[in-house]
Amino acid sequence: MTVGGFLNFVCDARQINSGKRKQALDRIVPMCSIESVYHQTIETLSKGYRRRVGLAQALIHDPDVLILDEPTDGLDPNQKHEVRGLINKMAKDKCIIVSTHILEEVESVCSRTMIIAQGRVLVDSTPDQLKQKHQCTLEEVFRKITKGRRG
After folding, report:
1. Which residue, of 10, 41, 96, 108, has the fewest CB within 10 Å?
2. What string of DSSP letters covers 31-99?
C-alpha cells in the first residue's frame, strides 16, 4: 500500500469524506514532511518515514488529545529534531502525552513529567523543578527515584 493509499484508508475508517478529506491531507502531509514519499509503498520507507506516516495517520482527524509512545525511537538526529519541533508546535493547541524512557526527549518536549514504576506515580512535576530539587540531570533523578524498583 502506498502512503497516499494508507492515509485515504485511514480517512475512510474515520469517516473523513470529500472536501474535509482533501483539507485533512493538505494539512497533514506537509506537517509530517511526507510529500516526497506520498506515492511510495510503505514497505520501501526508512524507519524515519514510517514513523512520520504513523504520526500522520494519528493526526489526520485533528485530535484534541494525542498519546505518543517513544515518538523518536530509532530516528536519526535530524528526524528527532523535526518530530520534537512538530510536537512542540502542536502542544500549543493539544494535550500531548509522551511515554518515553528517553529523558532528553522529556526535556525537549514536556512541560510536565510523571515517573511511574510498578503502576505507581512516584513523581509529578516539571522537568526543571525535578532537576532543581535533586540538583542533577533528569537521568540521575530517574535513577534515584526508581532505584530498587522494577516495572
Report:
1. 41
2. HTT-GGGTTSBGGGS-HHHHHHHHHHHHHTT--SEEEEESTTTT--HHHHHHHHHHHHHHTTTSEEEEE
